[in-house]
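For the sake of clarity, the format in which proteins appear in this thesis is described at this point. The fold follows as a row of integers, each naming the local backbone shape at the matching residue. One such record is shown here in full, so that the layout can be seen directly:
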Amino acid sequence: MLDVLKNQRTYALIGHGGCGKTTVAEMLLYVAGATPRLGKIEDGTTVLDYEPEEIKRRGSVQPGFATFQWEKNRHFLVDTPGDLSFSGDLGYILASVDAVLFVVDAVDGVKPLTRKLWQEVSKFRLPTIFLITKMDRDRADYQMALEGIKHQLGVKPFLQNVPIGKAESFKGVVNIVENKAYVFDANGKATETPIPGDMADEVEGLRESMMEEIAVCDESLMERYLEDPASVTLDDLLAATRKAVVCGELYPVMVASGLKCMGGQRILNAAQLFFPSPLDAPVGQKMVDGADGSAVAVSPDSPPACFVFKTQFDQFAGQLSIMRVLTGTIAPDAALFNTRSEAKERFGGILLLHGKETQPCKEPVGPGAIIAVAKLKETRTGDTLCDEKKPFTLAKPKLPEPMISYALAPAEKGDEDKVFQAMSKLLDEDVTLRLTRNEETGDMLLSG
């Protein structure tokens, strides 16, 4: 299992509403062969935005999950809502992934909500690749978006790719690390091509800056670079870049057009190359912090522990508890202890998520896996499930406090209990909601 885990990737797509996250996610799924056609928001055919309300709004109102293979390696992808009204539990999602693909719109650039989302991501110190998307659109301005990342988000961008052309003439990228150019065909497939002559000087200057930025993060590489720059190979650069990304010292910037399927292959390659596995830590053994100040080592051989970060209701499977395997190995018939309810929960199987579809997983899964388990009776969002003999409770991220409240009243007097019962599913799905009763007026209050 160690070899599988070392090549496994678990990451979230994050960005403000309308920046093109879901379109990028659909492109990645299509390029990876996880879906037979490229889903489009305008047509209501996306894999990850499938609820009627999402199709109507043309935007995500809940996280979308996908499990797929890229180059025979398993990827777990979480597409997060970009509207703050639906992202109150973002902290739970960030605690459940190993990296972030942060999407910035080439037309609108960095917006106030982009800054707010980046502040939240920064708290978790997750390795991040910035993706400037919508490069094919009118008014697409790569330089403006890049300056926004640099000055408004306070990030020093590491230029992994730079665009060839802009707006309707966007047709490819130059990979600065590889020192190669690629153009996209009508299906988005990348083919190597000579670096355009009018970009040669710019690329040479960017490449020199890139070499220096990487060398600064690796002392041994810096010594070799200063002594003999020609001795530094591409493999050396890629290894040093990955190390710096995992440590949060470099933030690669890439470009794409999700709608035209341009750049998906390059993004997946970068995620595989630079994002950490669930076992990787900047220094030493990766640990998970407990609520009591303890910590456990992340390993498939450790006692099992899972964090339930989302609850959804499926019309066929019923309640789905969506969780990340924190450590240990989870079998389809596992029996784990809920540290909050002190109940023992027996799994009736493990499900892998792909939009609204679920697929039974017959093999044990290890750290980093995003799985769903149906019909757990005593488990809610935010709970930790673990080995009863080795109890462990994750130190949960703090969620935002409610900002507004509405009074609820039953249609008929005496039906208050029915209202409470009906609201229970909603409260399970959105952990940021609160249902209380005002002692003075007796009103039921829904706050969020």
Observations:
- The two ends are 42 Å apart (CA to CA).
- The mean pLDDT is 91.
- The first helix runs from residue 2 to 6.
